[in-house]
Each structure stands twice: as structure tokens, then as C-alpha cells.
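Entry:
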Amino acid sequence: MLAVPPADEAYRQGVALLEQGRAAEAAPFLKESARLAPKNAQYWKALGVAFASMNELRDAVEPFRQACALDPRLLDACYYYGRNLYGTDKYEEALAPLEKALAVDPVKGRAEAAIGQCLHALGRNEAAEKRFQSAVARHDRAEQMARLAFGQFLVRQGRAAEAVDVLKPAQRPESHDASYELGLAYCQAGELEEAAAALQGAVRLSPRKAATRLLLAKVYRRLGRVSEAESEELAAVTIGLPEQQ
């Protein structure tokens, strides 16, 4: 039987721990695999995933940079690099790896929507809107994500009615974020009953999101449904309290 190279063994152990949700324990193994085989893009990508899973986005940037540079065609490598740059407010730097991801990834809508978000953050709103429109028009597996990003953009532009039209088709599959963004757009558009219905769905899907409950309370108050508003406000406060010992 052939001996397993140490880098391969470290990588396998790290990935096994990642799959169990134990990213902090996985990181040392994945660091070792990348150290022993620094030309292996997959090892660097896995190390970046470990850091990102711990929400250590700044530490994730360099491993993803290495992975993207070593093999731009490796699935997710350049996309993750760009997204982590975006997450650390490096919007201009994020554009190049995201363009690389757009060129090679089979699901192009996510990279294009991410480019739109970077352009919006840079104040290049006309270019951002074109990217969002293109991402949505692809109708690929990232369509819901693209619609949410485009809807958020439109809400921030004060174009709530357009945001509603973009977000309504994004409600399947159900998700808290899709329902919340639709509720926010309805609220901004002054369609309060529709806002309440969407936000009720968001609360049902993620009952421990205090911000969602507070927005629903605000809508209830505008509708004159005071007791329901108070109930949501109390729930939001309770979510923020430490659990009783």
C-alpha cells in the first residue's frame, strides 16, 4: 500500500473536521497541508473556508488569494476571494477576482450580483444596476440571491415599487431574507398590509431575528395594531436578553 503524503493526510483530517462544523479545529490541519504543498490551490481554498466559517474574513483573504492565483478555474476560489474582499470593505480590489469567477463559474448570476454590490458600494450606481439586471436575467441557480441583491439596491435608491416587483419572484424557496427584504420594500412603498404579511413570514422562518420583529412592530403600529406591535417589541427585547441560568 502506498503511503499517504503528509499534506494529503492533513488535508483529509481538516476537511473531515470542517464537515462536522469544527472549523477552529480544522484550521491547523489545513494550514499544515498548505504549508507542505503550497502549489495546491484546493488546500488553500479549504483553509480559506475554515477561516470564513469562523467569520475571520481578514484571515480568509490570503488563502483565497492564493487559491485564485494558483488555479482561477477552481470552483469557488476566485468567487470566495472576491466575496471576502467585499466583506472586508475592499470593494475595488474585489472586482478583478469576481470578474475571473464570472468567466469560469457555471452559476454566473452570483458573481455578477456580487460585482453589482461592489460597484454600488463604490458609488457607481448606473454600472451596478446593469450588473444586477444581467444577474437576474440569467435565471440560473443564483437567481434568488441576485434578486435579493438587486432589491436591496433599489430600496436604498428609494425605488420601493420597483424593488417589490424584483423581490416578489424571489419568494421561492422560502427564506427569512427573501421575506424580510420584500417586507421592507412594501413598508417603504407604504403598502403596510402586504409588508405585515411578508414580515410575518420572515418571523415564522427565523423567530429569533430581533430586527425583523422590530420592523414588524413598526408596521403594526402604523396599522394601528398596537397590542400586536407591543408583543413583537417584547419578543425583540427578550431575544437580546441573556438566557436565564
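The radius of gyration is 21 Å.
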